[in-house]
Structure formats: C-alpha cells, structure tokens
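FORM 7B: Structural annotation worksheet

SECTION A. Query
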Amino acid sequence: MNLNEKDIFKRRFYSKIIFLSIIILIYTISSIISGFQNGMAFSSIPAGIFWLLQKFIPTQNALQYFPEIMDSAIKTVLLAITSTTVSATFALFLAIIGSNSTGINIFTKITTKVIASFFRNIPIVAWALILVFSFKQSQFTGFLALFLITFGYLTRAFSETIDDVAGDVIEALKSVGASYFQIVFCGVIPSVSSQLLSWLLFFIETGVRESTLIGILTGTGIGFTFSLYYKSFRYDAAGLVILIVTVIVIGIELLSNKLRKEMM
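SECTION B. Predicted structure
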C-alpha cells in the first residue's frame, strides 16, 4: 500500500469520526433543548413492551367483535381503493398537460408542478383536521383527505413517468405528423400504462395504511373502531383490530407486489 492509499483511508476514517461526532453532538443538544430524558425513555421500554403484550393480546372475548371489525376493515379498504382510483384519474389528466414531454405550454407545466407540490407537501393529518372542521366526521371527509394527498403524489409520479418512459415514443410520433391527441392516446398512455398501474397499486397499498390513521381523526372506518375500543379500555379488541389491519396490509402488499412484477 503506497502513501496515497494510506492517506485516503485515513481521510475516510477521520471523516467518519467527524460525521459521527457531529451527529452525537446534534442529538445531545436537541435532547437538552427539548428536555428529552434519555435514561428515563430507554429504561421505560421494557415496561411499555410488557404492558403492550399483556393488554393488547386478543382474547376469546375479543372474537365477539370480529364481525364489526371486519365490516370496518372492508369499508376502509374500499375507501382507499376509491379515493386512489379517483385521484389517479385527475392526476393523469394533470400530468399529461403538465409534464415536460406532453405539456401544453409553460403555464400548464408550472401550474401543474405548483398544484402537485401544494397537495403533496401538506401532511395527511393536517388535511384530515382541516376537512373535519369543514365537513365534520364522515366517510366523505376521509375520502377527501386521502384523495388530496394521493392526488399530489400521483400527479408528480405520473408526470415523471411520462417524461422518463414516453420520450422516444413522442419523438417518433411527432416525426410522422401525429396530432397532440394522437400522441397522447395512441403513444404516451399505452407506453406508460404498466408503470401507471404500478403506481396506482402502490398508492392503494399506502392508502390502506393511511386510512387507518385518517379514520381515527375523521371518525370513520377501522381507525374509528380502534379508537372506540381503545378509549373504552377494551384493549383485547383493539389488539384484534391491529392484528386484522396488519394481516390486510401485508396481504395487499403481497398482492400488489405480485401484480406489479407481472406487469413490468
């Protein structure tokens, strides 16, 4: 090993030490300012885990709530599918007129990016709270919260997919004199359909997870059922809710991954 290689390894080692020291310093300062007590927090972990396992294990008595929980779970899944599908329809339209490849003009491109960024960067919890005050607790409120956040993400995802995948197709169709609508409907959409469906499945999967939290805030679906059992100290039933949600999410994820692999 020559001198230059030794110097390189030393610099890398010192860089890692400096980086780690900075992280530790930032963590320490943040803990002091926020009043976070590390010792108390970490020492309470075993007791918290023990309480969780003791209270949230579903019991025989919790099985009587199974039909009610499944009814809420099915509604939650359907809500996620509906909101994601509707948002994908609007997102596709906005992505087409706003992407760099198929955008109508600079105004539509900038407007699309601003709209997508606005809806995407407001947290879903904030959307839920805002909409609860406006529309009260209802299924429609949960639908809107999921729709708005998904719309923002899908608009960006669809737009970037069109730019990445359909560029060659667009150039080829332009060279033979195809019109704008022919380029979009005969070239762009068919060439990116599998990627768009992949994104749609991914956000349905994500929507099921998020709709649980949304339900707690909007008083709907499986989230509301969990909140009801938890607040009434029926922890075994709340544990059954968690178990069912976990199984549903894993099942949807496995199905979604399988479908995406077949489409790609």
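SECTION C. Observations
The first helix runs from residue 3 to 34. Residues 61-263 form a domain with the MetI-like fold fold (CATH 1.10.3720.10).

SECTION D. Sign-off
Analyst initials: ____
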